[in-house]
């Protein structure tokens, strides 16, 4: 058999029984996954889409998270509390995010907040997300500037900057979570003007990573490599964990060499897998 077959998940058990002994491996994947050939191996590479529950983010710059929550629970009570609240948690920036089951619950809660909570800014987040990388952002541009530029083209509440990190030449790169439909508009354009700069962008591609051996292009269930065991995930040494590691060197479990982090863009194997995935998706 030249390569693994694509099988609908509903028929997995039936296919496994019918083909037992006839094939080496069956890989299940959805419509957003592609198989990329690596010599005699096949790697499952997916578009980076996060399925999240619909939610709202509540921001109040004058109050801490606990005060916002206390205010919310004291002023919205009884049958005015919408059904379908799944979770309430704190974001990394100190705002409150409330996950709900459906759009009806979101609209009901937003209406109550607008009516009863003074000074609260409410942003609605819908379910399915796409992750984008934006490059060539200038050095003084902030996450708020990026969100403003993106949402001026796609609509309010469609983007959230996950990280903003330095690039060569005094530039920055941003990772942005976006509503799927809004992201599709930007992907089609392939660039966006932020401030003075026309910035490149592309959709993030996720490469499957094995948490048994630390390498890529397969998952632990199908791993045939020696496991990392108790070795440090950072330096590859023994006798300590990555959180306790004091070594300055780093070890890549993918290409089995020192000098860069595992599955980073400095790893030629990982970099090649991502670029093959990007080329495959760009031809869709």
From TrEMBL:
Pfam family membership, one: zf-CCHC
Gene3D superfamilies the UniProt entry points to: Zinc finger, CCHC-type
Membrane spanning stretches: none
Domain CCHC-type residue range list: 209-225, 231-247
Keyword annotations of the record: Metal-binding, Zinc, Zinc-finger
MF (Gene Ontology): nucleic acid binding; zinc ion binding
Protein name: CCHC-type domain-containing protein
UniProt organism field: Psylliodes chrysocephalus
């Amino acid at each position: 058999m030249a390569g693994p077959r694509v099988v609908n998940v509903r028929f997995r058990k039936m296919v496994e029984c019918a083909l037992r002994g006839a094939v080496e491996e069956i890989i299940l994947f959805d419509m957003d996954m592609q198989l990329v050939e690596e010599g005699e191996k096949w790697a499952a590479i997916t578009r980076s889409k996060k399925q999240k529950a619909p939610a709202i983010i509540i921001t109040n710059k004058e109050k801490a998270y606990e005060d916002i929550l206390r205010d919310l629970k004291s002023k919205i009570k009884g049958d005015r509390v919408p059904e379908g609240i799944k979770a309430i948690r704190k974001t990394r920036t100190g705002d409150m995010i409330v996950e709900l089951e459906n759009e009806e619950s979101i609209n009901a809660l937003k209406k109550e907040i607008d009516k009863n909570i003074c000074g609260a800014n409410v942003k609605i987040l819908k379910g399915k997300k796409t992750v984008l990388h934006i490059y060539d952002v200038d050095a003084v541009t902030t996450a708020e500037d990026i969100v403003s530029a993106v949402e001026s083209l796609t609509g309010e509440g469609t983007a959230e900057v996950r990280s903003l990190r330095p690039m060569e030449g005094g530039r920055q790169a941003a990772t942005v979570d976006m509503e799927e439909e809004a992201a599709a508009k930007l992907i089609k354009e392939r660039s966006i003007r932020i401030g003075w700069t026309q910035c490149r962008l592309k959709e993030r591609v996720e490469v499957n990573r094995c948490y048994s051996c630390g390498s890529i292009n397969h998952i632990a269930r199908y791993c045939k490599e020696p496991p990392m065991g108790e070795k440090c995930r950072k330096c590859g040494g023994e006798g300590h964990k990555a959180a306790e590691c004091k070594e300055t060197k780093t070890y890549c479990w993918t290409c089995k060499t020192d000098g860069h982090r595992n599955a980073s863009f400095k790893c030629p194997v990982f970099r090649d897998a991502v670029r093959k995935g990007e080329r495959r998706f760009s031809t869709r």
